[in-house]
Amino acid sequence: MSGVLRIGNASGFYGDRFSAVREMLTGGPLDVLTGDYLAELTMLILGRDRLKDASRGYARTFLRQMAENLALAKENDVKIVTNAGGLNPAGLAEAIRELADELGLHVAVAHVAGDDLLPRADELGLGKPLTANAYLGAWGIAACLERGADVVVTGRVTDASLVVGPAAAHFGWARDDYDALAGAVAAGHVIECGAQATGGNYAFFTEHDLGTPGFPIAEIAADGSSVITKHPGTGGAVTTGTVTAQLLYEITGPRYAGPDVTARFDTLALTADGPDRVRISGTRGEPPPPTLKVCLNTLGGFRNETTFVLTGLDIDAKAALVRAQLEGALADRPPAEIRWTLARTDHADADTEQRASALLHCAVKDADPKVAGRAFSGAAIELALASYPGFHVTAPPSDASPYGVYTAAYVDAAEVPHVAVLPDGSQVDIAAPAGTLELSEVDEPEPPEPLPAGPVRRVPLGTVAGARSGDKGGDANLGVWVRSDEAWRWLAHFLTVAQFRRLLPETANLPVRRYVLPNLRALNFVVEGLLGQGVASQARFDPQAKALGEWLRSRHADIPEVLL
Fold it and tell me: Whole-angstrom Cα distance, residue 526 to residue 516?
């Protein structure tokens, strides 16, 4: 088909701006509206919901959004595609049908099933997790839309599939139209996180009037190229910078693998296409790998924490005293893990008590909720009159809370059913890919010619470089980019793995991989194990590494004056 398909996004996570669905449906023309509600942590939350009530397991916020907006979507002939089904897409699809009946609407609702591998986890060698969900692709969504669905609900599909499926259905792409599919994956990856594509969480946010940023739109063409934009009059900005930042978000190397295609992010090009319009073109695609990624969540045990406030003089001595006292009090049955962190937020000769104070954080984990519960927090409070001068804590004693552990597994794609359940209840089985290609690393490209030697100035790296970071299980991903060819000639040579470790000492003893993306003037770093067992385990101060990039940008480096 000719023309473009306008696909908007109204949610980047479970808890995103509730009003975004209405804003997107009333702000301008759309063909499809998507919503991404799932993340690794969300699957754990939904899994615990399902333990309490088997009819749960989906994002109930989406149902409330549809109560307000389903009639509007139907009136404007906008298709809705969402992964809000979580662990129970059939349950959410039925709830939408009941809602439509209550509203007096004729809405054809379909859903995609097959991703939930929990009943077969042992058989597949996945152990006994709380949740086990394979990342399905786009073809179940496409089958639902091709057969008349107005609303398509999925469970765990890749985030980009919410865009690839409608595009494949609209343009009639074949399973081996890899370049077109890869282009749609790039567009889907950009808009999947909502306002992060329109100026949200953007390193150079001071250059734009951010306000309340609008949500993004991808105008997909028949060849898979796209233009990223937003509704006119909405806040934020769409620039090559905001799009670059989102392309780098939570990826690894140049090969971005999915269940339908492996997109080569080292081939795409970004060009400005007018105000708040950025074109993505030239993306090449390869056959997908033969395996599907599986998101596994297990209950890891119980955790608790206490934060001691240390004020004024002798901060280190105060911290050493209370640490020795608490560990001594717990010596008969210590928690399996005790982790101390001292944040030196104090200032000398401070003009407020808060600015004179440091925070000593103690976090514990154990399989026994009693050991990690009041046995720990009560012991901390019992020191109140017997420890350092000025003793106080930030919260009263508390019980332990359960925490989850995320791991990724891989299973043969042919082992995972992929089923489109159509509005009339009939089913279409989606075959596994006929052609696959094992993933391999891309040879690192030749570096650009280095800048000639010249005067430098010691300033924060973020003066010239942007960054965006995030998590993949226990690993942190950090993309760094610059905005001129000259700056790229410097960055590609300066920011080596060794330099990265020097700037971020927490990574010094961890495996770090660097990937080079010259077309984006970008480097992407993957730090293995920085986040422990994933966000739900709360292994560090910033458990999803959301601000890791901003820490890197704040570090000082000798930057050529010609770039300043």
Answer: 12
